[in-house]
Amino acid sequence: MRILIKIVFFFILIGFCVGAYFNLYEEEIIGERIIGICVLASAFILMPLFLAHRWKGKKLKDYTLTKENMDRMKDKGLDDKS
Fold this sequence. Notes:
The chain has three helices and no strands. The chain is mainly α and 82 residues long. The chain has one domain (2-81). Helix 1 (2-25) runs antiparallel to helix 2. The longest helix has 28 residues, at 28-55. The model has no long low-confidence stretch (mean pLDDT 89).
């Protein structure tokens, strides 16, 4: 998974560079389209891959603000002040 994320990242980075080149030196509309496709790819392909990789094996309940977690945070805050 990590290798796939790196490969996708480098393709998107190369796409941004190619888009910037076309935007500066060649046809501007093609450069803007390439950059736009790279932005979409980074938002809809790279980010979900990265988030799935980072959240694998973690419990969502540990990171949400439930009544139990709020009480536990209040108890830790009172213990630290004493």
